[in-house]
Specification:
With 396 residues, the protein is an alpha/beta fold. Helices cover 37% and strands 18% of the residues. The longest helix has 22 residues, at 300-321. It is globular and about 60 Å long. The model has no long low-confidence stretch (mean pLDDT 97). Bound molecules: pyridoxal-5'-phosphate.
């Protein structure tokens, strides 16, 4: 194989900050590098590998579908696409589905849907209220919707129509709402922003405000959806329903897929309005259906709840015992440990040396997002490594 990082540096655009690790194989929560070392993977492809690595049932489903019918375009009907849409509609508050291939694409679709709805139903309103520190993707429209200026500023004139307010601040949304507003776009928990959990009544307050004003609530559940936060959809924990919801990441268990879900009342796309060559192809939707079936009926959601509670307890104990740990937050198996100093990068480097893969989501915050199939033993092992690493840094 040669020196993979050197080969990569010659031929791949240099835009990723990669860990010095070439991964070759995985099984469950564990991955192996090209030297034969293994690691507990508490990043799981950024909350993508819902069922862990090398899941035999998912692999068989993909192989079977690939041999049967992989891709036919949306010029035709296909059964796996309908079957996954049925699962999504039957197990959510939403009524209709459009499939695409990523989180950014799902949000692109949601933005187009909300803008068309605004033109048709709210006198041409097109503005979308988004939040600071949000993340909605890397396409030109989704960086315009993302509350992180450095993701959009290098790329010239921006798509107009987005206004930003602080997350977890209902009054700021109220103040930003005008006749031009068609929707509010939120993550139920900000993932890339640092696993920011809003106050318990925030989403309920936003929902009520959107209803009063006659504007749409779009929830970006690309990271929080599909069981990641301990319920199938994070919005369930707030006791509300969005008008539009976007999904991707964990839905395919590693196969690229995204989805826009909409209530009937705002599903205003007509033939020709939007589309995707690959979106909803039999391979990706068969994978998605298998993943959701495992999450909903196969015990994976119950495991995520139990392991999430265990991880919370273990991180709380670390918070009590380590002088470096400042707090922890999250839901289900999307969690973060906040540190008193900006040493998240060092925690990640040292954890790697102990055989644990973590993510430094902020300079002072480490994110945990293992497969939803993670075992109790693996949570204990990971917590022990984190505690050891914090002790090393504290005494260094
Ligand atoms: C990752 C993420 C996206 C973008 O998904 P891609 O598949 O990388 O385009 C959008 N929204 C949220 C909340 C995400 O976490």
């Amino acid at each position: 194989m040669g020196d993979i990082p050197a080969r990569e540096a010659r031929v791949h655009m240099q835009m990723f900050r990669r860990l010095p690790l070439t991964l070759v194989r995985g099984e469950g929560t564990r991955v192996w590098d090209d030297t034969g070392r293994s690691y507990l993977d508490f990043v799981a492809g950024i909350a993508v590998d819902t069922l862990g690595h090398g899941h035999p049932g998912l692999a068989d489903t993909i192989a079977h579908q690939a041999r049967t019918l992989m891709h036919v375009s949306n010029l035709f009907y296909s059964e796996p696409q309908v079957a996954l849409a049925e699962i999504l509609v039957d197990h959510s508050a939403l009524d209709q589905v459009f499939f695409c291939n990523s989180g950014a694409e799902a949000n692109e679709g949601a933005i187009k849907l909300a803008r068309k709805w605004g033109i048709q139903h709210r006198n041409g309103a097109y503005e979308i209220i988004s939040t600071n520190n949000s993340f909605h993707g890397r396409t030109l429209a989704t960086v315009a919707a993302t509350g992180t200026a450095r993701y959009r500023e290098p790329f010239g004139p921006q798509l107009p129509g987005f206004v930003f307010v602080d997350y977890d601040d209902l009054d700021a949304i109220k103040a930003a709402t005008t006749d031009r507003t068609c929707a509010v776009l939120l993550e139920p928990i900000q993932g890339e922003g640092g696993v920011n959990v809003p106050a318990a009544d925030y989403l309920r307050g936003v929902r009520k405000w959107c209803d009063e004003q006659g504007i749409l609530l779009i929830l970006d559940e690309v990271q929080t959806g599909c069981g990641r936060t301990g319920t199938l959809w994070a919005y369930e924990q707030a006791g509300i329903e969005p008008d539009i919801m976007t999904l991707a990441k964990g839905l395919g268990g590693g196969v690229p897929i995204g989805a826009v879900l909409s209530k009937d009342h705002c599903a205003v796309f007509e033939p020709g309005d939007h589309g995707s060559t690959f979106g909803g192809n039999p391979l990706a939707t068969a994978a998605g259906a298998y993943v959701l079936q495992q999450v909903i009926e196969g015990g994976v959601l119950q495991n995520a709840v139990a392991r999430g509670e265990q991880l919370e307890r273990r991180l709380a104990a670390i918070e009590d015992r380590s002088e470096l740990a400042a707090g922890q937050r999250g839901a289900g198996l999307l969690r973060a440990l906040v540190l008193h100093r900006d040493v998240a990068g060092e925690v990640v480097t040292r954890a790697l040396a102990h055989g644990l893969i973590l993510n430094p989501v902020r300079p002072n915050t480490v994110r945990f997002m293992p497969p939803l199939t993670v075992t109790a033993d693996e949570i204990d092992q990971a917590a022990a490594i984190v505690e050891q690493v914090l002790a090393e840094i504290a005494s260094s």
